[in-house]
């Protein structure tokens, strides 16, 4: 389908919707050849976080980027927005598109849902790339502890009713004035178009609903994630990509997976796909070539 008026896009993608897991899911597709890559964003992002990365990957792969439930142009209806529910939506998307095993990529808070998917449905996953992400039960909760260097916005988003009270009508100020400057270090990487598009998405009614759900579940699901790992570590090849958080992603992945390759992107911040798309694309493509070749 063609994108709706006002939604930012790029020529390489087509926009699609599907009713999955009880909700309307929005996703984009680029490229027709090669093994499929499923890109899953974090916060404060949507599929648009990958718009510079997608054309580079689509030269060799079919690239799919999704708005997680409660994010972007996916449905924001009242409901369950935990990482478990998001993982089920991703599973249904893979099967709906008949993709077969995918190169799964999870970024930031989206990494919890993608890890769950890889752990519970390994037959659907060719490889797993974790970008700037951690897991509850393995240290991710500490990012909410402001007394030990954590970030205040996680607690704000996780508190019932507080995001709606504090952020509604102030989305641009929060995103452009705080979030992106705090998370990125590459001057000029976040463009005016990026700010406009992310502001549009998060200004939708209940635009923070997906984020609040994921952060709330993050604070309570540590034992469940540890139980998943205790049952069996990930056996598919895993790429742990670190940037602004250093080796945090790698330190997490070696605890939960058997076959981990580390990639460190130096000189950039947390928003790797926006700040260094060419470097990230080359890192991912090199990893995929060793598996597909």
Oligomer: single chain
- CATH topology group: Rossmann fold
Helix percent band: 25-40%
Task: Provide the CATH top-level class.
Answer: Alpha Beta
Question: How many domain modules?
Answer: 1
Brief summary of the model shown:
The chain is of the alpha/beta class and 293 residues long. The chain contains twelve helices and eight strands.
Write structural notes for this entry.
This protein is of the alpha/beta class and 293 residues long. It has a single domain (14-292), classed as Alpha/Beta hydrolase fold, catalytic domain (Rossmann fold), CATH 3.40.50.1820. It is 40% helix and 16% strand. The protein is built from 12 helices and 8 strands. It has helices at residues 54-58, 83-96, 110-120, 152-158, 162-167, 171-183, 192-202, 209-218, 222-231, 248-256, 272-275, 277-292; strands spanning 14-20, 23-30, 36-40, 62-66, 102-107, 125-131, 238-242, 260-264. An 8-stranded mixed sheet has the order 1-2-4-3-5-6-7-8, sandwiched between helices. A hairpin with a 2-residue loop joins strand 1 and strand 2. Helix 2 crosses helix 3 (110-120) and helix 6 (171-183) packs across helix 7. It is globular. The two termini are 33 Å apart. The model has no long low-confidence stretch (mean pLDDT 95).
């Amino acid at each position: 389908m063609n994108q709706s008026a006002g939604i930012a896009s790029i020529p390489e993608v087509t926009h699609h919707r599907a009713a999955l897991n009880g909700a309307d899911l929005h996703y984009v597709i680029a490229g027709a050849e090669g093994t499929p890559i499923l890109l899953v964003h974090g916060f404060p992002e949507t599929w648009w976080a990958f718009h510079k990365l997608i054309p580079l990957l689509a030269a060799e792969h079919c690239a799919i980027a999704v708005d997680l439930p409660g994010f972007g142009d996916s449905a924001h209806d009242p409901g369950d927005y935990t990482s478990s529910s998001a993982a089920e939506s991703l599973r249904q998307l893979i099967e709906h598109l008949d993709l077969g095993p995918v190169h799964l990529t999870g970024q930031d808070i989206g990494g919890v849902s993608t890890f769950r998917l890889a752990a519970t449905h390994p037959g659907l996953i060719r490889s797993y790339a974790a970008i700037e992400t951690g897991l509850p039960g393995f240290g991710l909760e500490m990012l909410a502890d402001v007394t030990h260097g954590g970030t205040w916005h996680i607690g704000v988003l996780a508190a019932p009713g507080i995001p709606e009270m504090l952020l509604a009508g102030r989305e641009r100020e929060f995103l452009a004035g705080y979030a992106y400057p705090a998370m990125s270090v590459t001057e000029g990487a976040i463009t005016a178009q990026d700010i406009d598009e992310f502001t549009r998405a998060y200004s939708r009614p209940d635009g923070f609903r997906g984020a609040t759900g994921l952060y709330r579940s993050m604070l309570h699901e540590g034992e469940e994630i540890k139980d998943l790992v205790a049952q069996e570590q990930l056996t598919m090849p895993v790429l742990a990509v670190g940037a602004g958080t250093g080796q945090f992603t790698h330190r997490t992945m070696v605890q939960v997976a058997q076959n981990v390759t580390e990639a460190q992107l130096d000189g950039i911040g947390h928003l790797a796909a926006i700040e260094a798309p060419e470097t990230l694309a080359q890192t991912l493509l090199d990893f995929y070539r060793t598996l597909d070749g």
